[in-house]
What does this fold into?
Amino acid sequence: MKFERFQHLVRMMFLPDAAGNIRTRYEHVDAAHIHPLVLAYVGDAYFHLYVRMRLLSYEQAQVQALHSFSAQIVSALWQAHAYRAISDMFTEEERTIYRRARNTKSHAPRSASVADYHTSTGFEALLGSLYIRKEHGRLEEIAEAAFQIIAKEMMNQQEQTHGN
It folds into this structure.
């Protein structure tokens, strides 16, 4: 981000109140009215943190290994794979949130196919919506199911590659 753009965002977002404190622009965050890509932004952050915390069950010293491994797990490819494997567990409302985000115009990075990127965006938006709504039990249920699918598939690929 260019410095001028950064300065503009600070001036636009951080407005002082009468006491000189930063005032909030919105008093309430309603997931139903948030743009799907913003929901995906929140869901991506949640899933990153969830995966990082889960990986502490397996490794607690090698930060580079944790970082690299978590980046693989939260990739669009693996999230899309997980979503497809657990899609039957979603309610109709959750599927609607997913579809709305999946169908939102965005640009896929070179590291993922367009289909996988859009699928992962929908998955992340679903997580973001649940997080904003404070549906933490359901959020953890879905994140854990996705983590399990990804971990098992990674193990299967490892076994096929190394013939174990």
About this structure: The first strand starts at residue 15 and ends at 16.
